[in-house]
Design goal:
The complex is a heterodimer of chains A (116) and B (112). In chain A, the strands form two sheets. In chain A, strands 2, 4, 5, 6, 9, 10 and 11 form a seven-stranded mixed β-sheet that branches. By secondary structure, chain A is mainly beta. In chain A, 0% of the residues lie in helices and 50% in strands. Chain A contains no helices and eleven strands. Chain A is globular, with a radius of gyration of 14 Å. Chain A has one domain (4-115): Immunoglobulins (Immunoglobulin-like, Sandwich), CATH 2.60.40.10. By secondary structure, chain B is mostly beta strands. Chain B has one domain (4-111): Sandwich (Immunoglobulin-like). Chain B has no helices and eleven strands. Chain B has strands at 4-5, 10-14, 19-25, 32-38, 45-51, 56-59, 62-67, 72-77, 86-93, 101-102, 106-111. Chain B is globular. Classes of the chains: A mainly beta (116), B mainly beta (112). Chains A and B meet through strand 4, strand 5, strand 9 and strand 10 of A and strand 4, strand 5, strand 9 and strand 10 of B.
């Protein structure tokens, strides 16, 4: 049972560099999410997707881009890394209930990113 | 604007006693609430949830209470165990919405 898999686990970037955080899930969930966790700030939603080809902004989308070409994969792209993007990034997936609620999220183990 | 608030950054409890973690929300459209538990270097994991049509949901040692008029929910852990030491996140969503909004978390320490 792989669940939600994120790579890499750790990364150090220089200011202005770009990178892609990979996320894949094998539960056939239609919903996928990217969150960032800053100390004392909880989890902030960056982007989300309700299905292949459909993405939308969350609470803190600036500086990031996403794509969803398949149900399984939801990569997060940082184009010009900035120190403010130093954080722990979590990918998550879920399904919707018949009542229309987003059911519980399944999270990956996170990516610790430092921008220096 | 924080829509989900956990005003206690940390809580320390003796093993065997009750732990009570609190959460407030401001958006009256929220109708589904969840608690997640997070250990260091791991992703959050789902713990328990409650729909707004209920005021209580219980799962073993964990009980969540919802007070809609006060826009307040709480998580009770009885009895608390050292393995319960973790960060607990309160989260909320609404029917027809796609987003789950999280609070800042409360770090629980259970002392043996």
């Amino acid at each position: 049972n792989a669940g939600v898999t994120q790579t890499p686990k750790f990364r150090i970037l220089k200011i202005g560099q770009s990178m892609t955080l990979q996320c894949t899930q094998d539960m056939n969930h239609n919903y996928m999410y990217w969150y960032r966790q800053d100390p004392g700030m909880g989890l902030k939603l960056i982007y989300y997707s309700v299905g292949a080809g459909i993405t939308d902004k969350g609470e803190v989308p600036n500086g990031y881009n996403v794509s969803r070409s398949t149900t399984e994969d939801f990569p997060l792209r940082l184009e010009l890394a900035a120190p403010s993007q130093t954080s722990v990034y979590f990918c998550a997936s879920s399904y919707s209930s018949q009542a229309g609620n987003v059911e519980k999220l399944f999270f990956g183990s996170g990516t610790q990113l430092s921008v220096l | 604007d924080q829509q989900v608030k956990q005003n206690s950054p940390s809580l320390s409890v003796q093993e065997g006693r009750i732990s009570i973690l609190n959460c407030d929300y401001t958006n009256s459209m929220f109708d589904y609430f969840l608690w997640y538990k997070k250990y260091p270097a791991e992703g959050p994991t789902f713990l328990i949830s409650i729909s707004s049509i209920k005021d209580k949901n219980e799962d073993g040692r964990f009980t969540v209470f919802l007070n809609k008029s006060a826009k307040h929910l709480s998580l009770h852990i009885v009895p608390s165990q050292p393995g319960d030491s973790a960060v607990y996140f309160c989260a909320a969503s609404r029917t027809g919405g796609f987003k789950t909004i999280f609070g800042a978390g409360t770090r629980l320490f259970v002392k043996a």
